[in-house]
Amino acid sequence: MIYKILNRGAIFSAQLLGILGVILLVLVGCVPTEDSQKLLRVALSGSPDTLDPHTTSATLTFQVIRSVYDTLVEPDGEGNIMAGLAERWEIAGEGLEWRFYLRPGVRFHNGELLTAQDIKASLERIREVNSPRAAEFSAISRIEIADEHLVILHLSAPYAPLLASLGSGWAAILPHSLIAAGHDFSLQPVGSGPFSFQKWVKDGKIVLVKNEHYWKPEMPLLEMVAFHILTENAIRAQALLNNEIDVLDVIEPTDIARFEESPEVKIERQLSSLAMVIPINTSQPPLNDLRVRQVLSLAIDRQRVLDEAYGGGVPINTFMDYGDPYYPAVATSYSYDPQRAAALIRRHNLQLDKELELTVPQNFEPHIRAAEIYQQMWRTIGIEVALNLVDWPTWIGEVYSNANYELSVIGHTGRLDPHARFLEYGYTNWNNAELTQLVLEAQQTATLERRKELYSRALAIMAEELPFIFVGTNWRYVVTRNNVQGLIVDQKLDTFDFRGTYKAPLQ
């Protein structure tokens, strides 16, 4: 393999395995004094870039702060929008006035009562801090505090996806007093969620403790959740088998068989809501040539990548996860056909002798394995690609935020509304006027069937233009110790809901 930066963490050796027990003792062995049945130990495959919900789009962050913050509305396990901090809501004025009635008696972790002022301050902060998700709230022209428990959102135009955005983690509600004081939520999150923040040992662990005053009085059932940052897959897997970890956030396909063989491990499989893609910086030559993007796509055997890197899944040919009800039947497809790729190169005399760079987040070993497979497949048609392994904060900053890359590897998480997908391709530097108009009309359309028609056409354009190479939706494996009960993984957001989770006594 050709690497620009050596990923020492991905190369396992006898020496690493020999010191495995020592590493586990250091990273996992410091068990709190609480009853172990009341402590849930979760392995995270990387460090969150921040604990501030308004300044990030990283799934690793939301895996943690999903338990710290609440939102006005929230998804159930299947992605349906339910009441949250708002016990009910109304839409009036031809879709331009959204009225949210807040639950009385909700308290933040600092003891302050939740009021409409907190909703207003939090939603305004999303724009003030230039959140990566700020565009989802741009239709809100004014926020009115009608009384202590009624907040009214006035929209400049109808915006059908708003409810889904308000139910996502990046719409978390923070105390307005701390916002005004310039509190550092990136290191000290304060919400009203089922668990409150206790400590964060960078690259070590994050500890949350039970919120005794949570607005659902019967929840949470656990006293503490400890997230252990374990970037090496071998360490994560062994920690679970050794009963030093209760839940894994990511597993390697090669570990599935050994987990299934263990009577102490429970493994559940379901189709994820991820769209695995190869982002392309379409402003960079030769990638600005659609024919080159077609060649790169035709060289990829998607099913092989899914099976060998991600534990299986279903190939896709546009920017939507396969199980989403909006996933369209797209006619245009540049699926695996290396002979056609080679013919395109010859027919158009494409000059592809320049070595390309594929930037990969190194804390996700499935992405590294996929990148190695892409590298091999492209080599078979005469295209050389070097792998550039970077840590997660660097990927977020340089690739997603600054578009400083050529090719990359990532999985886009599911969204509660399809509109959000069309806010996530900016880092490809690709634009299409027709798609922009289709998305604009769809966001102002309340009729489900008409929205499907509009989004289907928009997704067809993406399938034709290839700002990404669309790879597939992988299987999601939820792996826990067999005494972990009541764990919910949000089907669309791929984050844990620990409110009803408990650990049954060991037999």
What does this structure look like?
The chain has helices at residues 14-18, 20-28, 59-65, 116-128, 162-166, 176-180, 233-241, 256-261, 290-298, 302-310, 338-347, 365-379, 392-401, 433-443, 448-465, and strands spanning 39-44, 73-75, 81-83, 86-92, 97-102, 140-147, 150-155, 195-201, 205-210, 224-229, 247-248, 265-271, 275-279, 313-315, 356-361, 385-390, 407-408, 410-412, 468-481, 484-485, 488-489, 496-497, 502-503. The radius of gyration is 23 Å and the shape is globular. The longest helix is centred in the C-terminal third of the chain and has 18 residues, at 448-465. It has 507 residues and is α+β, with helices and mostly antiparallel strands. The strands form six sheets. Strands 1, 8, 9, 10, 11, 12, 13, 14, 18 and 19 form a ten-stranded mixed beta sheet that branches. A four-stranded antiparallel beta sheet has the order 4-5-7-6, covered by helices on one side. It has 15 helices and 23 strands.
Our measurement of the CA-to-CA distance between the termini, rounded to an integer number of angstroms, reads: 47 Å
Q: Which structural class best describes the helix and strand composition?
A: alpha+beta
The residue fraction in helices comes out at 25-40%
Q: Sheet with the most strands?
A: 10 strands, mixed
Outline type = globular
Radius of gyration: 23 Å
Number-wise, the strands total 23
- The quaternary organization reads as single chain
Brief sketch in words of this structure:
The protein is α+β, with helices and mostly antiparallel strands. The protein is built from 15 helices and 23 strands.
